[in-house]
Write a structure and sequence with these properties.
By secondary structure, the protein is an alpha+beta fold. The protein is built from five helices and 24 strands. The strands form five sheets. Strands 3-13-16-15-14-17 form a six-stranded antiparallel β-barrel. Strand 22 and strand 23 form a beta hairpin.
């Protein structure tokens, strides 16, 4: 082959090979182009969302017995303590100046005062107990027993057609044994009361006043509490029998410790107790909480991590910036954790899973 022809052949062959290489590179499959342009590490993302996590839950609480006030036999009476008059019946409402009845014709009143009565009081007596009495009867402040104070006491007797006690000089006085002291905000319900003619033992009770109903206290998580409010009527179970109650208080949220879950204490007053069921302090009481729950802020369980400060999630601030945000987990259910919303974490916040 002539030298000129050889040179032409080499040039043409080089052009053909180069064109084929260029065409092959230019016409690469789309999948190959995409794969080559994918970054080496792509974060998996999720978002914090408000959602409803339903389902009934059996809550087990403990009974707390209500307080009571016993109106006992007056001190210093004869050996036989006979109920001679009863002014109240079971279920009656009682206030801080109520007349209960008489034992051996000696009256028994309830008197609400911040300092319990500990002595007989006559006109001119001084002391903090006198100051408390003046306040109880809405009289001018002071610490000296005035005629107005003892006259106000006497009117309690007159209202019941009783002769009030007097001093040797005929002045009205307060006789301590006729009164049972109670708290200033006293209010209660007659639980039991003796019958006229009944003979009471020493320290026997003319009446027992309930100052608060028996109640159950339950520890519930935020999902169970969100749909509840004070005044709601609930169905309970005590000793295997149905009972009813009314929610009287819901506490603030508190973190769990030991065997106690994070959540709130819900107090339920027992409004209906099965007959024959004895209630005692510390007794177990059951309550199936409502099925529907309000929407709560949730994050996927896979987004939760832990460090020495506790649980946290990684929030994506931008494509290249992330921030660690610690969270308070109140419940986990169905693959999600319920968390308290914050300025940095709320509905729609982008989270990095890995």
């Amino acid at each position: 082959m002539k030298p000129v022809n050889l040179i032409v052949f080499v040039v043409v062959a080089a052009l053909i090979a180069g064109g084929a290489f260029f065409a092959g590179w230019w016409l690469r499959p789309a999948e190959q182009v995409v794969l080559q342009n994918i970054p080496q590490s792509v974060p998996v993302m999720a978002t914090a969302q408000y959602r409803k996590l339903g389902g009934q839950t059996l809550a087990v609480g403990q009974v707390q017995a209500g307080r009571s006030l016993s109106i006992t036999v007056p001190a210093g009476l004869e050996l036989l303590h006979v109920v001679t008059r009863v002014a109240l019946a079971k279920g009656d409402q009682v206030t801080g100046s109520s007349f209960i009845g008489t034992v051996n014709d000696q009256p028994r009143f309830i008197l609400a005062t911040s300092i319990p009565l500990y002595r007989d009081i006559r006109i001119g007596d001084r002391g903090s107990d006198v100051a408390a009495l003046l306040k109880s009867f809405d009289l001018p402040k002071g610490n000296v027993a005035t005629w107005r104070l003892l006259h106000a006491v006497r009117k309690l007797y007159v209202a019941q057609k009783l002769e009030g006690p007097k001093t040797a000089s005929g002045e009205p006085m307060l006789k301590r044994d006729h009164f049972v002291s109670a708290d200033p905000e006293f209010a209660g319900t007659v639980e039991t009361v003796a019958k006229p003619g009944e003979v009471l033992p020493d320290s026997g009770a003319l009446a027992v006043i309930s100052l608060g109903k028996d109640r159950g206290v339950f520890r519930l998580d935020v999902l169970q509490v969100e749909s509840l409010k004070v005044g709601d009527k609930v169905d309970l179970t005590i000793s295997g029998q149905a009972a009813k109650g009314v929610i009287s208080a819901i506490s603030e949220f508190s973190a769990g410790s030991g065997d106690q879950i994070a959540g709130k204490n819900v107090t339920v007053e027992l409004s209906s107790i099965p007959s024959g069921v004895a209630i005692s302090r510390g007794q177990s009481i059951e309550w199936i909480t409502p099925r529907d729950s309000a929407a709560v802020l949730t994050v996927p369980l896979t987004s939760l991590k832990q460090d020495e400060e506790g649980d946290f999630v990684t929030v994506a601030l931008s494509a290249s910036e992330q921030r660690k945000v610690h969270v308070a987990v109140t419940k986990t259910q169905d693959g999600y954790a319920v968390v308290e919303p914050t300025d940095e974490l709320n509905d729609g916040t982008a989270l990095v899973l890995e």
